[in-house]
Amino acid sequence: MSSRSQMKRITLASRTLKFLRQQAGLSTRGAARVSGLHDGVINHLENGRITIHPRHLEKLLQAYQVPLKTYELFASGEVKLPVNLHAECIELIHQMSLEQLRTVHPVLLSLAGRG
Q: For the chain, first and last CA: distance in Å?
């Protein structure tokens, strides 16, 4: 493992790891249990204190059930990380026409387990 730096270098890659962990519904301790990494390592990775090595990435993506391609899209900036996924979705819904809402409503119901 790389030595810990006192300086934080929070990169898009480290922010992506944190976002994916949160989307998986895991705390750093929960992610540690599932991935086999120490929670301190996860914290340091997300806060830019240590370099993200492929062995860390592989374990975390497997724990978060996220394909490498998804990580790469966010970490490269090709796809923007949502600031607040829930709020962004609500905002998108507010911007939709009634016809668009009729189209997405059954999908939302099925995803919520009510369809």
A: 47
